[in-house]
Amino acid sequence: MQTTIQTYCPQSKTRCGVICHIENGRLVKVGKDPEHPMQTNLCPKGIASPELVYHPDRLQYPLKRTRPKSDPDPGWERISWSEALETIAAKLLEIKKTNGPEAVVFGKGASGGTPADNYKNWITRLALAFGSPNGDLGTTHICNWHKDKGSAYTYGVGIPVPDFARAECILIWGHNPAASWKKHMEEIGRARKRGARVIIVDPRRNETWREGDLWLPVRPGTDVALALGMLHVVLKEALYDKDFVRDWTNAPFLVREDTGKLLRVAEVDPASDSQDLLARHSEDGRLMRYDQLTKRFDGEGEPELTGVFPIKLKDGSTVKCRPVLQLLSDLAAQYPPERAAEITWVPADRIVEAARLFSNSKPACYYSYNGVEQHTVSMQNNRAICIFFALSGNFDKAGGNVIFPKTPTNSIDGKKEFKLDKLPLMNDTRPLGPKNVQARDVYRAVLEQKPYPVKALVSFGGNCLTANGDSLKGKQALEKIDFYVQVDLFETPVAQKADILLPAATAWESFYVKPSFEYTAATSSYLQLMPGVIPPLYESRPDIQIIFELAEKLGLADKFWNGDIEAAFNYQLAPSGVTVADLRKKPGGISLSLPVEYEKYRQEKDGAFKGFNTPSGRVELYSETFLLHGYDPLPEYKEPMISPISRPELAQKFPFVLSNFKLLAFCHGQHRGMPTLRKMVPHPYVLINREKAAELNIEDGEWVVMETPNGAIRVKAKPTDGIHPMVVSTQHGWWQGCKELDLPAYDPFSEQGANVNLLVSNDVADPITGSVPHKSYICNIRKA
User: Fold this and answer.
1) CB atoms within 10 A of CB 272
2) Number of domains present in the structure of the chain
3) Beta-carbon contacts of residue 525 (< 8 Å; ≥ 6 apart)
4) Does the global pTM surpass 0.85?
5) 188 and 45 part of one domain
6) Distance CA 320, CA 74 (A)
7) Are 664 and 13 in contact (CB under 8 A)?
8) What is the pLDDT of residues 112-166, one digit of tens each?
9) For residues 98 and 90, is the Cβ–Cβ distance under 8 A?
10) Which of 24, 159, 363, 385 would you label with 575, given CA atoms 20 to 30 Å apart?
11) Are 218 and 201 in contact (CB under 8 A)?
């Protein structure tokens, strides 16, 4: 018997529309759905899905540990689901009673290119309903937080969707969609064909690059200097959109030279306590009051954008003030292209060309990703790029970066329902950063009991030991923690430390709804059912089913629709007017066809502009929020905390800058056990400049040792012309073997292995967000 089922593939950022082919109850093929708005030529991971479903090493039934966690053999013993769930619930409730609910951490796998996107919010809900603020152990601080959340410090929202289809110029900064986002890659390709120019900012000449693109090979971690060099050109040559900058950014607001704070009415008017902001009239020099409610200046005329002005305060003293744009210009003036080139290793003429090309192209859009997020200056990287884009005036314009409408839904993560007093781990030290729990926080809470003890971890997917730095410290923490539950497809390195190991079903055996594909106008309000194309194999269960069953065992059934998953999805979808039954009748998906509006900040209601969701109601080039928390309000360049320049005492022994990149065949630490995919990349390797490799007598395919002050690993050398002589780049996630191809597994805790996170320490991090320099560390490379 043969049948086909329409659904979507969760194994990449694109979430491609697919048709699954079933023969006699067996998934035999996954192909693209040509009618789906997210139809693409599938990536290798999607095509190889049957290999994942029927992989012989999949976990088949619940297991419990019988030997100490320090023993390399867990001594797994098969148990029933009933015993597993009852054991887990009893232990968690005991820890909650003894140590408080915050002593239990809940985690997940990366949601960007995995099915975890389908159930991540339900895990957060489970944690909050249980009473724990620690419901999101993950890697967002080194993956996507800066663009998705941190951009709100500039725009009031995360990075809007790049409208590739209408753009005349596309800036891709620290993003390689050829390996991680197929839909982006196809849209960029179509844009090229109609004549759009593409600028690539990446330390290596990545797979997204094509002949004719402008490539800026930035030294890892120096993106702020590159952005300032480009801003120097934009501001000096007045290439910015003056109307947008004047009317919709905080460029005109006066900043006090003595305090660095924005000047307010109450500071100059003895009769007022208003905290409204002030600018200077460009013609008569009077102070112009900006009403933060209406987002308008009083009176007629335009505010001044440049200059230095003495302003008399209400106490009779005088203070010098500058408009924000003047301060930005002063900062950028310190980074002419020649100086930026010295810092970034990008030729000065390319910096000038990129600045002019992007600014003179109308419209233009951009996208940044974790290429600018895995550094000790990640938040300021993001701020600098956001400011550069904002000055172009392409925000929320067709062909720029657009806030497309999304399907209206009810929030299901519980953040509005369950208000907790306890802060997440270490949140008090990074008040402006991610609210998720970071692996290093868990390690510290287990090993040092700070800021409070963590006694249990429940993780649905994820492999923190190979996805984060300090793998050995993580191993030590998981061997010490009182109780650890892992839900997974395979016995991963982290799963080997679990007390209870539960078999997860693959996404193809699971039931979910997706209320938005988010990436284009056509898909942002597109809903689709993932029905589970085959029943779960063995004794595996979908992650969401396990979440709901565990909630019931913990006495939280009333918070989880008494176990009715379809009712929960219907609650989530209620504002859209669509039900699961509706989606079941339309297996290819339903489009709500919501109207697209541009420049929504211009919308008026009751005499007030909508503006931006920032303190000033405008794009914030200058962040007083950062200033008040002790951070630079403008993105000042700071040398990466650990580099051959900032650590000269280490430079002779570790002269290279170590970066990393993604592979199309794999997602993070997954898929290396699948023959079709492992055949594409049989061994871990490091890219090294061809001339530098010859100088070190390193040949193509030769095993080499990479070492940092933290440790060493072995990988194969791959010389290339597309990387700077002092930069090397590799991949993370190597552990799984492939028996069918007789290709080895790699010990993630040994110098004979290939776990790059043995080389990176979590101790050196971005002070605002906690991001770790996985892409800008120091290292040496030598023949093995």
Assistant:
1) 14
2) 4
3) 404, 405, 406, 407, 516, 591, 592, 593, 594
4) yes
5) no
6) 68
7) no
8) 767 888 899 999 999 999 999 999 888 999 999 999 999 999 999 999 999 999 9
9) no
10) 159
11) yes
